[in-house]
Amino acid sequence: MRTIDSLGPLRSRTVIVRCDLNVPLADGVITDDGRIRASLTTIRELREAGAKIVLISHLGRPKGEPEARFSLKPVAERMSELLDAPVGFVGETVGADASAAVDALGDGDVLLLENLRFNAGETSKDDAEREAFARELAQLGDAFVSDGFGVVHRRQASVYDLAQLLPSAAGRLVAAELDVLQRLTESPERPYTVVLGGSKVSDKLGVISHLIERVDTLLIGGGMLFTFLAAQGYQVASSLLEEDQLDTVRGYLKTAEDRGVRIVLPTDVVVAEAFAADAAHEVVAADAIESSSFGAQGIGLDIGPESARAFAEVIAGSRTVFWNGPMGVFEMEAFANGTRVVAKALTETEGFTVVGGGDSAAAVRALGFSDDQFGHISTGGGASLEFLEGKQLPGLEVLA
């Protein structure tokens, strides 16, 4: 894969950098700047090389036209603080204002353009429309650096088409993410444990199928655990259940047994009266969820303390751990213990630990852990999972 070094001298050249600055916002305030921080390594290197830097990114899911709540302006302001240097901002992606702002850049200057997804061509399924938008972007620069790992699984104008129109290379973040994922798939040190959580089994079908032949232990938490319990014949009251995945899960359990892979399910769960932060709740055995005080109306919202300790013990004895998906509704303190215990276990093991982006990354930061306590925190949940599923990622293929 081509890296920045392949682009040659960059002084006075305008380099377009596709970042993933899709940060969470609450009333215009950034609540987790992890993705901005992750982008800084490449930006600093390009500044030191004397490049004129044009940053592009999406934020949220606007429908191809401007929406004020998805503006990247707060990102430019936060990046200025983190970079300790001015980051210019222009309220459009392509057009006269964007062109003028780019033309005014000096060596080492940084400019962030407005949200790519305010332009319908960015995510268009029509190749011609997508390429037309990419050509407008290409006119703004002399070279392209792809550094938004969270979008490399998307065939989008700024990820795939633009890379074919300019001399292009992977940024340091994308290269680092790829190195970690190859380590997980090609040469993991054993024992190798994968911790999967999050809401739905259906979101993890591909990665379970691909990893079940490669790992030693799978730990299952989050909302998806209830489909696993139901597949074994247990009642799960009103907990999240994907009935259409029961046969698939039974197949996973059989495959794991045949291959000697341990699938560890919780032995206790935290069941609540309702999906609410202040809901009454209690710990019950995983095979007796409807025995709680709430009967068939109870909702499982976290793994129980016994299960959390058991998961931590498995993690402690592992040499490689990949974790994707929280163990419960970590945003509510009453149901955050399972996620907190798993995160703490990852920080204490001597093995190589990878937090697989998305909700997992948000969870560890929200619970007070710092990025440097883990071997690696991915910036791309969906991209990481697709890579681990063995899929080809368009944004990486185009840089080969």
Give a brief outline of the structure:
By secondary structure, this protein is of the alpha/beta class. It contains 14 helices and 17 strands.
Write the layout of secondary structure elements.
Elements: E1 14-18, E2 25-26, E3 29-30, H1 34-48, E4 52-56, H2 73-83, E5 87-90, H3 96-103, E6 110-113, H4 127-138, E7 143-146, H5 157-161, E8 168-170, H6 172-186, E9 192-196, H7 205-211, E10 217-220, H8 225-231, H9 246-259, E11 262-264, E12 268-272, E13 281-285, E14 299-303, H10 305-316, E15 320-324, H11 337-348, E16 352-355, H12 358-366, E17 376-377, H13 381-388, H14 394-397
Parallel strand pairs: 1-4, 1-7, 4-6, 5-6, 7-8, 9-10, 9-15, 10-11, 15-16, 16-17
Antiparallel strand pairs: 2-3, 12-13, 12-14
Helix pairs in contact: 1-2, 8-9, 10-11
Tell me what you see in this structure.
- The protein is of the alpha/beta class.
- The chain is 35% helix and 17% strand.
- The protein is built from 14 helices and 17 strands.
- The chain has a six-stranded parallel β-sheet with strand order 5-6-4-1-7-8, with helices on both faces.
- The radius of gyration is 23 Å and the shape is elongated.
Q: Give the total of beta strands.
A: 17
Q: What order do the strands of the largest sheet run in, or round the barrel if closed?
A: 5-6-4-1-7-8
Largest sheet, if any? 6 strands, parallel
Mind telling me the C-alpha Rg?
A: 23 Å
Portion in strands: 15-25%
CA(first)-CA(last) distance: 4 Å
Structural class: alpha/beta
Q: Regions with pLDDT < 50 over 5+ consecutive residues?
A: none
Share in helix? 25-40%
Average of the residue pLDDT scores: 96
Which geometry do the CA atoms define?
Answer: elongated
Number of helices: 14
